[in-house]
Design goal:
The chain has helices spanning 5-8, 20-24, 28-50, 103-109, 112-117, 123-139; strands at 15-18, 72-77, 81-87, 93-97, 151-157, 160-165, 168-177, 180-184, 194-197. The protein is of the alpha+beta class and 208 residues long. The strands form 2 sheets. The protein has a 5-stranded antiparallel sheet with strand order 4-8-7-6-5, with helices on one face. It has a 4-stranded mixed sheet with strand order 2-3-1-9. Bound molecules: coenzyme A. Coenzyme A binds at residues 36, 59, 63-65, 74-77, 94, 134, 137-138, 141-145. Coenzyme A (COA) binds at residues 36, 59, 63-65, 74-77, 94, 134, 137-138, 141-145.
């Protein structure tokens, strides 16, 4: 069976927003709250593109997004970018900035066998694997506690890979932004990414 045939037919609309300079000036707690709100705005935009979504974006007592109206949702927020996605099946999204990582972190994130699939321990591979696994673990609702049980089993091309978790394969599609990589649990051809700026005057994280 190809990876997750049940999800393969569904087109998803993951939305990434460049949050620009406006949020960067806020004090830490306010900034995180603002990014969290903007990530929910990205999820609402994804729902509009999908033509349906949860009426409310609520989480359970463990902080896991709760499905509603038959739609699941996932968000991610980092200082420069936020992202959100909704789907009629469990879904996960993650964004990370590509930056140097220690050899010890590579050991935590994947095995030698997995790194070999990407051609070695390159920092780009690190963040591809990290975001792919986080997206899958969010879709599974477990977060990083499941990291050691998550395996990359195939790297199909620079934007697609398969991750196994909980006895089944999850297809992952990726998108590269300025110094960042994003991942969503969707097979090749199923993720119609939208990348936009918010607010319009934003740009602190964009190239000069
Ligand atoms: C969930 C988790 C993977 C998020 O990763 P992150 O890179 O820190 O944050 P992101 O911005 O990408 O995602 C945050 C969003 O994930 C969602 N989320 C939180 N826990 C989640 C879970 N178990 N499953 C799915 N989604 C979850 C939330 O919506 C959260 O945003 P919000 O708090 O504004 O609502 C991570 O925080 C985690 O695993 N937490 C569980 C506790 C844990 O294992 N901590 C060890 C840290 S080393």
């Amino acid at each position: 069976m190809s990876p997750r045939e049940d999800v393969a037919a569904v087109k998803l609309f993951p939305v990434i927003l460049d949050v620009g300079a406006a949020v960067a000036v806020l004090e830490t707690r306010q900034r995180v709250a603002a990014l969290s709100r903007l990530a929910r705005e990205a999820a609402r935009r994804s729902a509009r593109r999908m033509g349906g979504g949860p009426a409310v974006l609520q989480k359970d007592d463990n902080g896991v997004p709760l499905p509603a109206n038959g739609y699941f949702w996932s968000i991610t927020h980092k200082p420069c970018y936020v992202g959100g996605v909704v789907a009629p099946h469990p879904v996960g999204i993650d964004i990370e900035e590509i930056r140097p990582r220690s050899p010890g972190l590579f050991d935590k994130v994947a095995t030698e066998e997995e790194w070999a699939l990407a051609g070695g321990r390159e920092v780009l591979a690190f963040f591809r694997y990290w975001t792919a696994k986080e997206a899958v673990l969010k879709a599974a609702g477990v977060g990083l506690t499941g990291l050691s049980r998550c395996r990359v089993t195939a790297v199909h091309d620079p934007q697609h890979m398969t991750v196994w978790y909980d006895g089944r394969p999850w297809p992952v599609s990726q998108r590269f932004l300025q110094g960042h990589v994003a991942a969503v649990t969707a097979p090749a051809g199923a993720a119609a990414w939208e990348v936009d700026q918010l607010p319009p005057e934003a740009g602190a994280c964009s190239p000069p």
